[in-house]
Design a protein that fits this description.
heterodimer; A: 90 residues; 3-stranded parallel sheet; B: 471 residues; alpha+beta; Glutaredoxin; 2 domains; 7-stranded mixed sheet; 5-stranded mixed sheet; elongated
Chain lengths: 90, 471
């Protein structure tokens, strides 16, 4: 399907990511384990580093790595966090 | 050298009837025959099957048969249908006498329903300059959400064909720039308005009204940027006057301010989508409304001017009654006035004034403009008493001269109010020219409506703007 762009075309095609955080100080960073083996070990280390930079962390886990995160989980992360890191480990 | 081109279709009785003429012509002069619906008609004449209609479209054929004479690539004559008295002198021939002298033709397949825009998209796509975006796996009705184009309701996917069909509603060139849309001040072409009108659900015949509305909100005194950015409730409302409001079947009667009429619903929405998508004005972005109002999805209606005893809104703005116009107003929602007892204009005017007193805040004066939408049953009271609109407005302004004692801070136990220093003044609720009256609504119901305006009405903010609609 081809559609004509209804916008001013001042921004590039496609969805724009949110601006990056300028600092981690006082921010809440979600750590999403996608349920691959050893994802928790990777995220434990990331969590230590984030805390050293003054960030708060919250841990989340997808029921299975084979499917996208369920809506309630995505909504929970969006409501509770300023940014999210998703761990892909094996 | 002269060339002869003939466009026919076998499904056209006239084309079939003139087959002997075509054969005679081909025998005497070089002839190109394009047939729109079958290969090999007339049989055995090496006609070209114009299955894609590319040739017919390029030739601008509207009727079959169409006979076109060219010389050195330039068209010098064209005739549609069959008329011996035209064809013979044009061709310099005496043509078959065994058929009637005159038969009108049939419609060209290029004009079949849905075909003009399909052919335009296929062969004239470069007349549109908007960026083409491809979505292969997407649900067409989710794309508007995914891309952030939607106001929250589904949008019609703006395909090239639909945009061409929309553009058939105006004579203006797609590339014409209408203005710069706030808050991004992005240049907005007729084409961009058409794309957003498609998404809003407009019919092509509404497009001139949408374009006029965009032009109107872009006039400096309307202050569209501030209206978008304000924390106040308001958004642009459109009132349509004149014959076009009736020819596109707008609702000025029962439920005029409500749902259910395509033109009312989609014209107002198209304007909002232009501001959202071309201007970049979005809630939470530059749109800082604390609450907004439901009219920010769409707010558009027509005045029932033919049944009114008063001059129309358009005539009040200096236009003739046969001119179609849009008036834009920075509007909040609708506040009802219920008065089922008043049979004298004075009593009803007092009811109106009491309702108008409350807009924004009963102590707020010279802030918001207001539109008073008077229903037929209320208008009748003024009609029978021969009160003109000007007299009613004058009476309302007099009734709304309010003592500073009631308006100052602390009065009535309310901290909100004017500075104490104004307690000895008497101030009118409305600025001069801040009160407009239109007639609309169903024939039953002794109700009228106040549509309050932006708290920054007038020169400091927004002034209603009326513009002629041009096709």
């Amino acid at each position: 399907m081809e559609l004509l762009d209804p916008t001013s075309e001042l921004s590039p095609e496609g969805r724009q990511p949110l601006p990056r955080l300028s600092s981690l100080q006082g921010k809440t960073i979600g750590l999403l384990d996608i349920s691959k083996p050893r994802g928790n070990i990777f995220l434990d280390r990331i969590e230590d580093l984030l805390k050293q930079h003054g960030a708060d962390t919250k841990r989340y886990k997808k029921p299975t790595f084979t499917r996208v995160a369920p809506d309630p989980l995505r909504q929970e992360i969006a409501l509770e966090c300023d940014a999210v890191l998703e761990a892909l480990a094996d | 050298m002269r060339e002869i081109t003939l466009v026919v279709k076998k499904g056209c009785e006239t084309c079939v009837m003139i087959e002997p003429v075509i054969r005679q012509l081909a025998a005497e002069q070089p002839l190109r025959v394009f047939c729109q619906d079958v290969a090999d008609f007339p049989e055995g004449m090496n006609s070209i099957y114009d299955e894609s209609l590319a040739q017919s479209y390029a030739l601008g054929v509207e009727i079959v048969p169409t006979l076109i004479l060219t010389e050195a690539g330039h068209e010098i004559a064209r005739t549609e249908g069959w008329d011996r008295s035209v064809w013979e002198p044009l061709l310099g021939l005496s043509l078959s006498a065994n058929i009637p002298g005159f038969r009108p033709g049939c419609g060209s397949r290029t004009l079949d329903p849905g075909m003009p825009e399909r052919l335009a998209a296929q062969f004239d796509g470069d007349k549109l300059s908007a960026r083409r975006l491809t979505f292969d796996e997407s649900d067409p009705f989710e794309v508007g959400y995914d891309q952030g184009w939607s106001d929250g309701l589904p949008i019609v996917p703006p395909t090239t064909e639909r945009v061409f069909r929309m553009l058939s509603g105006t004579t203006r060139d797609p590339s014409e720039i209408i203005g710069a849309i706030p808050p991004d001040y992005a240049r907005c072409s007729v084409e961009k308005i058409a794309i957003n009108a498609v998404m809003a659900g407009c019919l092509p015949e509404y497009l001139p009204v949408v374009i006029a509305s965009v032009e109107a909100v872009l006039e400096d005194q309307f202050c569209m940027h501030g209206l978008l950015a304000t924390t106040y409730f308001s958004g642009p409302m459109i009132v349509v006057n004149g014959p076009l409001s009736r020819s596109i079947c707008m609702n000025s009667g029962g439920n005029a301010l409500g749902q259910g009429n395509r033109a009312n619903a989609t014209i107002g929405r198209a304007l909002q989508l232009v501001i959202r998508n071309v201007g970049g004005g979005r809630p939470g972005g530059v749109d800082r409304a604390a609450l907004g109002n439901p009219g920010k999805y769409t707010f558009c209606f027509a005045e029932d001017e033919l049944n009114s005893c008063w001059t129309s809104l358009s005539e009040d703005a200096g236009f003739q009654s046969d001119t179609s116009t849009v008036t834009v107003f920075a509007a909040d929602g609708v506040q009802g006035i219920v008065d089922q007892k008043s049979r004298s204009p004075e009593s009803l005017a007092r009811s109106f004034a009491a309702g108008l007193r409350a807009i924004g805040h009963p102590k707020m004066v010279q802030g918001s403009d207001a539109f008073l939408v008077v229903s037929p049953e209320h208008e009748r009271v003024f009609r029978e008493a021969n009160w003109s609109k000007a007299e009613l407005i004058e009476r309302l302004r007099t009734l709304l001269m309010i003592s500073g004692q009631e308006l100052v801070q602390g009065a009535a136990g309310i901290e909100e109010g004017l500075p104490i220093a104004l307690k000895d003044k008497t101030i009118c609720k409305f600025r001069a020219d801040g009160l407009k009256i239109v007639r609309a609504g169903g024939t039953a119901g002794l109700f009228s409506a106040i549509i309050a305006g932006w708290g920054a009405s007038g020169a400091i903010g927004s002034v209603p703007v009326t513009r002629e609609i041009t096709l």
